[in-house]
Amino acid sequence: MGTIYARGRKLWIGYKDAEGTRKYAPTKFVLGQESKARKLLEAIERRVKAAGEFGEASLGPLTVKRYIVRWIEDRRLRQVASADDDETRLQRHALPELGELVLADVRPSHVRALVRKLKAKVGQGREQLAPRTVRHVYGVLHRMFEDAVADELIESNPCSIRRGELPAKVDKDPTWRSGAVFAREEVEQLISDDRIPEDRRVFYAIALLGGLRTGEVSALRFRAYDASLEPLGRLLVAASFDTRTRLEKGVKTGKPREVPIHPTLAKVLAAWKLTGWRRMMGRSPGPDDVLVPKQDGRNRDAHFVLYWFRRDCEVLALRRRRQYDSRRTFVSLAQADGARKDILRWTTHGPDGDIVSVYTTLPWSALCEEIAKLRITLRDGRLIQLPKTASARGGNQKFTTPVTTDTARQSKTLSISRTSTSVQSVPDGIRTLFRQLN
Question: Where are the domains of the chain?
Answer without folding.
Answer: 3-50, 64-150, 181-371, 383-437
